[in-house]
Amino acid sequence: MSAPYRLRIQKRTEEVPRWLPMATSIGAIILAFLISGLILTIIGGDPIRTFRYFFNAAFGSWGALSDVVVKATPLLLIGLGCGLAFRMRLWNIGAEGQFYIGAFFASLVPLVPLVDMQTTPKFIILLMMALLGMLGGGLYGLIPGWLKAKFNVSEIISTLMLNYVAVFWNNYWIYSEFSDAGFQMTPMFAKSAWLPRLADYAREVKAFSGITLHLGVVFGIIAAIIIWIIMTRSRWGYEINLIGDNPQAARYAGIDITRNIILVFMLSGALAGLAGMSEVSGVVHRLQERISTNYGFSGVIVAWLAKLNPFATILVSFLFGALIVAGREIQPSGLYFFIQGTILFLVISSDVLLRYKFELVRAASEE
Amino acid sequence: MTNSPQEQINAVEMRDIVLRFPGVLANDHVNFTLRHGEIHALLGENGAGKSTLMNILAGLYKPESGTIRINGERVVFNSPRDAISRGIGMVHQHFMLVPTQTVTENILLGLDKPGFLMRLPRYDQKVADLAEKYGLKVQPDAKIWQLSVGEQQRVEILKTLYRGAEILILDEPTAVLAPQEIQELMDTLRLMVRQGKSIVFISHKLNEVKQVADRLTVLRKGKVTADGINLEDVDKETLAELMVGRKVIFQLNKKPHQPGEVVLDVQNVSALNNRGLPALKNISFQLRKGEILGIAGIAGNGQSELAEVITGLRSCQGKILINCQDVANQSPKRAIDQGTAHIPEDRTGVGTAPGMALTGNMIMKSYDRAPISQKWRISYTAAREFAKNLKEKYDIQAPSLSTQVNKLSGGNLQKVILAREISCGPKLIVAVQPTRGLDVGAIEGIQNLLLEQRDNDAAVLLISEELDELLDLADRIAVIFEGEIVGEFPTAEADLKTIGLMMTGELRRQE
């Protein structure tokens, strides 16, 4: 005897409805929370209370909300960069390293210092830092990009390995040349190298007091708009999309693939580098160890969750910022990573729903 | 369901077979009867449901409803193994052989005997005996990669016979063969039928079917339009109409045309294939304005590489002049800028971006030119307008301009490629297998398009494995064998036998 119903799995031949990718992502997030809740219950916790606490920790006050956006900013920039590379099926998982090198390059401005920190206008200093941060990340993206384009070196391996190089490179400088009296950090940057924060205006607007939200988030939003324009409106975006869909066809259409691999890798790295600049200039105000809490890798997840869509990346990075902020408040502290891992796993598996159709059908009558 | 008593026991009886794929009714209450000892042709266009029906018989798909009887006995196949045990063997269009193993090893693959010890020589003898019995010449201890495509096909047939097949299904068996090999296959099939086998011959080529089959069944869009009729009773035109659903005129609109100056001049070109072996050896030829040069040859004799070096996709030695500009070893862009259009062999792998929408695929060659390109940006309004015009002009059947092209049928996909390439106003068209795998109606349209381009003074390099097509379209024919041009003559002086011998390397034109 067989069951009266069976699951029929068929490859989709018709177009995927527009709402479905979004729906599966949201479904994956909800399911991840359900699974986490289940685990919490099993280990003796109270999931409802935990999640309520979670929610309040992230959205309960203006201060908390500002923290969320601050955490979301590097994720947004990195997510945009990764998303761009993923569009071309370049698996840049080196955002972590590009972030560190970007932070390092930006820090050179106040640390060397490259300009007089007292007399140069703040605007010029910050612009230099942003440009150098992007340059640093871009050059660090150039290495795997060039290796991939010229020698077909797997970018997965090269970017992953270069992450470690970048961390140790930074460590060298903060332990030696730029060390603050022997501590593993540089001296605090001059105020003129700080990105403006809302708290700076507390004297004018009382409500801003203690709000750490800084200008970096504006970089992120502008970057999202620019990436969106590139991908949907520009010739270059068309080339990127074509290469991503079928590199053979792109070559056949006369598109220079080598050049595009290098360019995309550089822009992807530059965005991560800008994230590094925004973090040292807007949050930490010095170069030190662990300026990134795995932003480079979370950014990969953010890009995928957003299905490589720049505007969705804004939303998803906000959600992840909330997870990070709330995760700090929760014991055991691994819960945040658990939820994050579960979300990624479910989102990637949910792609199956886009490629296949699942139907419950009455089993064919057999004798 | 009750059936009326059978008057006669048939080898296969399929009744009211229904199978649905997402969006299509692949088999819509199909009936199919195979008599003992006959060659039964299953005719239909691509996507008509022929292969689906036979895959059901071979146990690969399960029908949603309908019954199958083998020798009068009701059967339900849950896997290909069940079908094999009832004496059904299928030779698929794409061979499933292990290239590094011998013929005998491939034939024994997956069987219970021999056991742990192979004792191959003994089985070599068994295979040789079986091959002898059915006139399937093949050397049992040869490795598969050493064999020609025709020989590999014989191995596939032997594989089914060794497993005790009484009913053989051949899916488009002649698609990969040279004319002589086709003749040999036909002889083999006749011999097998005389020894009591029953054969289903899937095809969409009317001439072959006329030549070899006893009876035939025609499918169109999943429905039977002719059920087991005798071949004597129908002519080619009727068959075509049954397949396509409308009258097909086997008349190409080929007018006499005076070729002009040289457009493509290939001088002493040599190139390697993807495995680093010589694929083209010192090839030279010229192609003029308003002329179609046909390149005849069996697949894998350097045709793909020839098209690639001309279009800039592969590096080579020697000179390739398009309008007197050397394009050899330059980027594909350079050939495109010289007015080269390329209709590649691999439509989904090279010719289109399958996941992209129709519009995106249409503008592949003109996205960087006005009016679609405006400085750094693309005007998608202009792009859609462009795509819409082509879609209408070439009658491309697609739900909308934003449909991904991987949802299109083969014929429509090819029309997308042709429309795009022709829209650039090419001076040179390199067309590789432009009609392969397409149905009669689509072939007719595409061939006429190529002729039209020739009459518009484009130079057309037509690389095809279909000799009929070359004879119909080309003004001159060159035969390629193992990377060399072994003969070249005006089509009017060409005869099928000479070309066939040249294609298999038996004959070279003595100068």
How would you characterize the overall build of this protein?
The complex is a heterodimer of chains A (367) and B (511). With 367 residues, chain A is mostly helical. Chain A has a domain at 74-290. Chain A has 13 helices and two strands; from the N terminus they run βαααααααααααααβ. A two-stranded antiparallel sheet of chain A has the order 1-2. The radius of gyration of chain A is 23 Å and the shape is globular. The mean pLDDT of chain A is 89. Chain B has 511 residues and is α/β, with parallel strands linked by helices. Chain B folds into three domains: 12-244, P-loop containing nucleotide triphosphate hydrolases (Rossmann fold, 3-Layer(aba) Sandwich); 259-339 and 427-511, 3-Layer(aba) Sandwich (Rossmann fold); 347-424, no CATH class. In chain B, 32% of the residues lie in helices and 26% in strands. A six-stranded mixed sheet of chain B has the order 6-7-8-3-9-10, with helices on both faces. In chain B, strands 16-19-20-13-21-22 form a six-stranded mixed sheet, with helices on both faces. In chain B, a hairpin with a 2-residue loop joins strand 9 (215-220) and strand 10. The longest helix of chain B is centred in the middle third of the chain and has 16 residues, at 179-194. At the A-B interface, helix 8 and helix 9 of A face helix 10, helix 11 and strand 18 of B.
